[in-house]
Amino acid sequence: MQAGRLLEKGYNQSEVARRVGAHRQSVSQWAAALRENGRAGLKKAGRAGRKPRLSAEDLRKLERGLKRGPETLGYETGLWTTKRVAHLIEQECGIAYHPSQAWRILRQLGWSCQRPTGRALERKEEKIQRWKQKRWPELKKRPKTKGAR
Fold this sequence. Notes:
Helix content: 55-70%
Number of strands: 0
Distance between the termini: 76 Å
Largest sheet: none
Strand content: under 5%
Order of helices and strands: HHHHHHHH
């Protein structure tokens, strides 16, 4: 609509494109629509792309399900995979998504890819420290001194 106002004021298409941050070809199409149908012609464009299948309420349900963890769906581990997220979406919202699209939805919700750090239950900290201080220096390769061949 801003571009339409500028075109009506007599600005040329290149100047309008620069001012609104659009391609000159887009402004050319807008100018044609403005000439043919007035401002109503500019309103017809609407949003680009397919409408989202998940509503705002669906996204809230999904986030609550993600916070509960994958164990609530019967999985053995607490690790979310895109396949598990797609399963959660289908369970919570009744909409089937491919795992690659599940990843897109996770990003939309602000979730990121993270791998949990695992530690052995049998871990003995004192033995680990001893190994790091004594055995590791023995195994570690040292750079050759200069001049020694």
